């Protein structure tokens, strides 16, 4: 068999048989295949060589045990993985997630998405994702350090600046990257850009911490400009209060919008007066320094805290920035009924496929692989700076980030042009696919 099967049901039933029970991975592939298979059917150039079959099989998955000792002297064991999905256009690149819900299926979905996202940035980066079912909540700094060191003791064999360059994701921020990079440096006896998201004092790029959240808002700005509208004066609902959400809130405030909500896994706050710079500083201290719960915001500013998610709040713009499947069909309907204009995903696959279907047909809707690509894009800029042994200014990095988000928007418009509105999902899927597919074809059957 060397011709890609372009029937979606046949393609998916084969994929499900080969990957039983991996529902997150099935969903991610289904979303891409439903756009890419019709594109292949219409384009002879992409019909040979089983391109999508090859792109849905990771290059390799490394799975290993991480043993560590907690503060009470108990020996603990977790499972960790690195899914090296595809290095057709550059060294593997993608984050590491620490969360109790991490499974091989979750990391395969994220690695698959990353391959398309990284292609869209225009930078030479392949796709990968890693992580562990380790739950960092409530752990001391010492426990986090010992876990990170143990994880890197195994992982260091498989990564390197020209091989695979991990970064952060849920549960992995500056502290964890620092501990992992420190151990990598020690074990490899080298100082290279083998990870990104590093501290600025040891090779990190300025602007990387802010890049995903700022980039999502830059992408939203492009979508709004394309319909002769803007962000200024618009109300926004945001979920999460981690890295992506915090800097999405920050850029919304800087561009004159009025964000109304933030959340964590225990619930959300709704501030009808809007989250301003001073209130955002409070959330940054709460989440980045004290690692507290979002409910404290409601206690301090006298607004509402509720369990659940913020999607019943009326707003012009929506930014799901917490985790996968956090916005379902009912949530999407409620946002649409409340007059939503546009939604840009900060998280990876936050909308269920039913929700995505509704949003795609009713509002401007940007999938994460396009709208949250600013984070990995600035990771790519960090790799360039490390290779050249230079550090760019924040102005330089921010200018490049804005240009990259604009180019991704253009690519989505090129491949996603539609009758009523741009189909950003189709645009991102086909735009991401073509570059990787061209590389696969030109490099022979490997
Ligand atoms: P963080 O760990 O910094 O923050 C995650 C936020 O989401 C927290 O507020 C957390 O709440 C909440 N959250 C996590 N899991 C759940 C859950 N199961 N239910 C409800 N809330 C939850 O992660 P990031 O901000 O880095 O990542 C957020 C999303 O953005 C992820 O989908 C990630 O893959 C994606 N992303 C991240 C990039 C980056 O550069 N960091 C780049 C591109 C995408 P709590 O603290 O209570 O757990
Ligand atoms: O999902 C993502 O794009 C990330 N977690 C960032 C990956 C990276 O290598 O910066």
TrEMBL record:
Residues 205-444 form the Glutamate/phenylalanine/leucine/valine/L-tryptophan dehydrogenase C-terminal domain. The active site is at residue 129. NAD(+) binds at residues 212, 243. One of its GO terms (cellular component) is cytosol. The keyword Nucleotide-binding applies. GO terms for molecular function: glutamate dehydrogenase (NADP+) activity; nucleotide binding. Keywords: NAD, Nucleotide-binding, Oxidoreductase. Belongs to the Glu/Leu/Phe/Val dehydrogenases family. This is Glutamate dehydrogenase. It comes from Oceaniferula spumae.
